[in-house]
Amino acid sequence: AQKITQTQPGMFVQEKEAVTLDCTYDTSDPSYGLFWYKQPSSGEMIFLIYQGSYDQQNATEGRYSLNFQKARKSANLVISASQLGDSAMYFCAMREGRQGGSNYKLTFGKGTLLTVNP
Amino acid sequence: NAGVTQTPKFQVLKTGQSMTLQCAQDMNHNSMYWYRQDPGMGLRLIYYSASEGTTDKGEVPNGYNVSRLNKREFSLRLESAAPSQTSVYFCASRETGRLNSPLHFGNGTRLTVT
After folding, report:
1. Is the Cβ of A64 closer than 8 Å to some Cβ of chain B?
2. Inter-chain CB proximity B40 and A52 less than 8 Å
3. What burial letters (b/e) apply to A88-102, b meaning 16+ CB within 10 Å?
4. pLDDT tens track for A18-67
5. What DSSP state is assigned to residue B103?
6. What is the DSSP string of A21-81?
């Protein structure tokens, strides 16, 4: 079974509108974290935002926010006021394993390609 | 700040040839990782090293070996390249000590095996 599922291979949004990119996860570890990365066409991986399983509030970083619904095991990325430069591939990733443990690693979803239209 | 540096950026190999992908980080991170990225597959973990002196297999280790040469350097070796290893390879590192510390990625190596 996939640990991270991103069901939207591609999404389109108009400039200045908000968009939600879906991510669901599967884990039995009570301590876990969700990361979102952006990969523009130039290929580099850019860290956007993190949500820990014990965090009381949804994470926000500028125009990025996480809609974290623990009971539904979803951690959707919300981008507000989309810009042309937001066009990129977006990956959700899950951290399992405890700090200092040898099994601390990230498992990635397959990604969602976001296109922002002018 | 160089961050994570990967060499080479591009490589073409013939089936059966060997090569080593180099990765170095200057952030004093303990943990380092090798991922491969294929279209429609996301990033899949090949090997990782939680700390200097240790290495562990990830999701897709077959056909690869790694060496954690020192704290800074983590290399990935293909002993006998196969067309199925055509991919983009990313090295990453992270700071241990915080659960929320993200992976810092290099710019990738695009490998083609003919």
Report:
1. no
2. no
3. bbbbbbbbbbeeeee
4. 999 999 999 988 889 999 999 999 999 999 999 999 998 999 999 999 99
5. P
6. E--EE----SSEEEEEEEE-TT---EEEEEEETT-SS--EETTEEEEEETTTTEEEEEE-S
